[in-house]
Write a structure and sequence with these properties.
This protein is mainly α and about 180 residues long. It contains 8 helices and no strands. The termini are far apart.
Length: about 180
């Protein structure tokens, strides 16, 4: 069945169609929320609230082909709301502390490197590369221009390149024992 047909059925009030749509994107929602919030309990709350808000307002969706983009926008708004509440006690931009026993020579994980980017760069990388949204969809989701998306992607890629380049240079200078 065409996804747009499912969206139209959900708009008409078909609960099962809505559930099927959510099941198709639940991993993407989880990954996006996780990259923004990092705490499992917050991720679960954000997804639950996003699904509830979407279900209550699905009738307002004007263009069914943009259901996924619409869902991401709701999710990102929800995550931002949670982050603003959380920021009273902790800094959102905090980089997780280095785990004991790890060294700069350990295997570098791309997802971990992306998670260490500042939020504005991290979210465009996650939406574009990990969730396969087009530049236009990312722009619509974040309510920014396509050129702003391109600029953030460029800066994020450059920062990731530098991190991996530095990692490789350090690793190459280490002599085996």
């Amino acid at each position: 069945m065409d996804p747009t047909d499912l969206v139209n059925q959900a708009i008409q009030g078909d609960r099962d169609a809505f559930i099927r749509l959510i099941r198709e994107i639940e991993n993407s929602l989880y990954n996006t929320a996780k990259s923004m919030l990092r705490k499992e309990e917050d991720v679960a709350d954000a997804i639950q609230e996003t699904i509830l808000k979407a279900y209550k307002s699905i009738h307002t969706l004007r263009e069914p082909q943009y259901f996924k983009t619409w869902m991401f926008r709701i999710l990102i708004n929800e995550c931002n709301t949670m982050l603003s509440r959380r920021s009273l006690s902790t800094s959102y931009a905090e980089v997780p502390a280095k785990q004991e026993g790890s060294s700069p020579y350990d295997e570098v994980d791309m997802r971990e490197a992306v998670d260490r980017l500042e939020e504005s760069k991290r979210i465009v990388i996650v939406l574009h590369y990990f969730e396969d949204l087009t530049l236009r969809q990312v722009a619509d989701t974040l309510n920014i221009s396509e050129s702003a998306v391109k600029m953030r992607l460029s800066r994020a890629r450059q920062e990731l390149y530098q991190k991996f380049k530095n990692f490789r240079e350090v690793k190459l200078h280490v002599k085996p024992i």
